[in-house]
Amino acid sequence: RYQAKHVADSLLANCSDADMPRFAEILFRHYQAPKTVEPDSAFALLDTALYVPMERIGEQDRGRLAAFASWWLARGEASQQAAAMRLMRRLLPALPENSPEVRQITKAVAAAGENAHYLWDPASLSPTTVYILSEKTAKWQDEPVEVTRYEKQ
Question: How many CA atoms lie within 13 A of 114 on its CB side?
Fold first, then answer.
């Protein structure tokens, strides 16, 4: 299952446009019910999604990935949380700026509490940046990683 990322990348990147929906459905059905997935399998699925060519998948599938990552960020152990954050970071550039998925990711990161820290822009500009700073997830990362930007309320 740890090689699934290479299979998914190769298959989805190189299949024909006609075959893409069929192959994507086979992969993304595993992301539909995160609470039914074992933690080790969730880590493998989160890691696999990092290698999916985001430009080739549809809005519904990106939504499934955002929901899956949000669920595991909230309920997983350190390895699933770190993998969820990495997937969120990969998803954000592929999502429309004001999409429900971006709002879902932003809320999930905000709710992560100890796993995220919010730094206001020192020049008092409107964007903020969310960083992973928790010791629980830091061991899975080389340094704090920017996850998303959103407007001050």
Answer: 8
- Helix axes 100-111 and 59-75, enclosed angle (nearest 10): 10
Which residue in 58, 68, 152, 49 sits closest to 110, CA to CA?
Answer: 152
Two structure tokens written together for 145:
């990683």
In the three-class reduction of DSSP (H, G, I as helix; E, B as strand; rest coil), residue 129 is classed as strand
pLDDT digits (tens, 9 = 90+) for 82-103: 899 899 988 988 888 888 898 8
Q: What is the dihedral of CA 13, 19, 20, 25, to 10 degrees?
A: -130
Q: pLDDT (tens digit, 9 = 90+) per residue, 116-149?
A: 544 444 444 444 444 444 444 444 445 544 444 4
CA distance 36 to 33: 6
Q: At 70, phi and psi to the nearest 5? A: -65, -40
Residue 29 CA to residue 24 CA, distance in Å, equals 8
